[in-house]
Amino acid sequence: MKNLWNKKKAEVCKSDLDLRVYTSKLLGQNSDLVLHGGGNTSVKSTVDGEEILFVKGSGWDLASIEAEGFSPVKMSTLLDMAKLDTLSDADMVSGQKAAMTDSSAPNPSVEAILHALIPYKFVDHTHADAIVTISNSKNGLEDIKKVFHNFLIVDYVMPGFELAHTIYEMTKDLDWRTIEGIILHNHGIFTFDNDARESYDKMIEAVTQAEVFLEQNAKLQVSQKFEPSECDMQRIVKVLSEAKGYDISININQTPLANYYASQPDLREFASRGVLTPEHIIRTKRVPLIMEDTDLEAGVARYMQEYEAYFKEFAKDEVMLNAAPNYMVIKNLAVISFGNSPKEAAIVNDIVEHTMRAVLRADKLGGYKSISLADSFAMEYWELEQAKLKK
Asked: Which of 184, 217, 250 delimits the end of a domain?
C-alpha cells in the first residue's frame, strides 16, 4: 500500500487538529482502507487545562472531513463510561453529547470511548480490505495472529460500548508499549502513536503486511467467463421499484470482476455468505438477490419471504425494514445495485466491488466466513447505525 504522506502539506498544519484533519483525509481517500463514512480517527489535546478528545463526528466521511467534523469530548467522561458494566446505546449517546465542549459539533463516533481508552495522542481506525479479507476466512484468526503477532487481537464483538468495555477489560494490566496496534476480528484495525505521521505510517505498514500475505497465499486471478450482454433493465427497475415502494436507480456492474463473480458455481450459496465488515450491512443488507433463472418476480418474492423469516427469528421489538434486496447477482450476466438515487446505487456498488474481491480471495484461504446471522441482525437493526442512514 502506497504511503501518501507529504512533508510540505504536513508542515502547513498549525495545530494538532490540523494534523488530524490532514492524516484523516490521507486514510479516507484510499478506498482499500475505508468506504463511504467508514472508519474513524481522533486526537487528544488539552483545552483550557482539560484533556479533550477530538473524535470524528457521526455522519462525516474521512475523505472530506474538516476540523468542524470532529467532536470535542471530555476525556474524563469517556474513561468513566468505559468502566461501567453496562451502558445502553441511548445513555452512551446522551452521555457523550453532554460531555461535548461544543454543543454545535456533530455527535461523537460510536467508537469515542475506545479512542479515549487508547493512551496515545493520535488514533486511526480503518476497515482495511486486506485485514478483513484475512479475518473473514475460516482460518482467519490463526492467520491474523500469524501476520500480526505484536497486535492485540480481539474476537468479534458489537461495536460501541460493548467493544470499548471489552478492550477496557483486556488492557487493564497491559503495557501498551508491547503492542503495535489492535486487530478487531471481522471488523478492522487500530493503529496509534503520539506522532500523527507515525500513527499513519503504522497503518500503512500493517495493511501492507496483510496485502503481502494475500499476494503470497491468495493471489486473485480474474478470468472472464462469459461475454457481457444486455438484459431487460426496465423490467428490473419496475419490479424492484414496486418491491421497494419508490422509484429506484440502478448501477450495472459487468466488469471482469463482476463477470467472474457472477459465473461461480453454486452461485446462490457462494454469494450469500454475509458482509465484509459489519457497517456494510446498512447499505447492502446481509445477502443479495441471486437470480439463476428468468423469473424475476418469483425471485424477489422468495427473497422477501426469506428476509421476513430472518427478521422474525431474531427480532424482539424492532420494526422490520423494507424486505426487498439492495443488490442482485444475475448468473452469467451482471451484478446490479439499487438505490433511491444514482449516488446511493453507486455507493452500494462500491461496497459490493470490495466485497466480491475479498470473498474470492478469502476462499483461497480456506473459505469466506462473515459474522453470524445473529450478529448481522444486531448490526442491521442497531439504532445507532440506523441513524446514519437517516442522515
From this structure: 217
